[in-house]
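User: Fold both of these, please.

Assistant: Here is the first one.
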Amino acid sequence: MTILLGLIAAMLSLGTPLVIAAAGEAVSERAGVLNIGLEGTLLAAAFAGFATASYTGSPWLGVLAGIGA
């Protein structure tokens, strides 16, 4: 039973960014734009946010860098 609960918790925590990206792609596709590089965009934003937050020590600058990426 605990293995099943752990699996469900892992699916929810690791799948959430992909669900958000898929929802964003659905909205942009309805507008007529096809973006097939969603995973790369997510990785670039995560790396930029982490690197900036680590370098500056400010999590808010990391969030801004992730948004900017």
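And the second sequence with its predicted structure:
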Amino acid sequence: LTNETIYEPSAQTLAMLAKSRRPSAAAKNLLVFSDPIFTLDDARFSAENKSSAENPNAETAKTESFRFIESLSELPRLSSSKDESEAIIKIIGAAAADNYSGFTATRENLLNLKTADYKILHFATHGLTNEKRPELSGVALSGFDEQGRKLDQLFRIQDIYALNLNADLVVLSACDTGIGKEIKGEGLMSLNNAFLQTGAKSVVASLWKVEDGATLELMKRFYGAMVNENLTPSQSLRKAQIKLRENPQYKSPFYWAAFTVQGDFRSVPKISRGYGFWIYLLPLLPLAPIGFYIYRRRKMPKPARQ
């Protein structure tokens, strides 16, 4: 190549780039999978243990727990997963959000959903990385139904390719979801790359083990910045990481630096507010006829004086 050689992208490439920068036209804002059922001794199997089901093991909550597993045989419940899903739904708004938690957070439900209807997909659970066979890596969903029957609980890379996505953003709030293995002839095989290839514009994923409580705090700040300040995912993540670093409990980079954004760095997920704005106007509707009457009275010509 000489200095005079200039690369000009084709019209098809420019069209694809322009399309990737447009916000998704999906009807719903958010789809969340969180707090799955991992064991038969989970308190949510018993109605008598409802209070403990609503509040996972307090002792576990006091100690550090990580969203990482080496096998499906030992899966501790993540005490902050449910809190995380509820917090981000509150930020985005429940009107256009669906939360599959507990018994409904299953692989089958995810495969049967119209995932193209959602602008953001969020997974708050354990991640499993298989370095020898990366195609078997995935995120852990519920392993049992309400009758205690065993389910296929690992949502693998091959399952991701079965999805139809139209998402602005996918958030993989689990351990090691951003790492993979270079496969000759295939490229990088990883969870985040699979979502990008399936149609997601951006993916938030982690590069190492993430701590449960720290991830909850990071995600609350991440969604708050993205929704309330209209920032891009990369800008929102940076702001959330700075805020978390200011917390003495999480000042170490281990707690706040694991997550990265890959994909389109410039698009902002367009969160629809539904009917939220009109709710505030409802109390004023009865005053509308009175205001119209006063307006007409002022516009009417005054009678001439005799």
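The longest strand covers residues 28-36.
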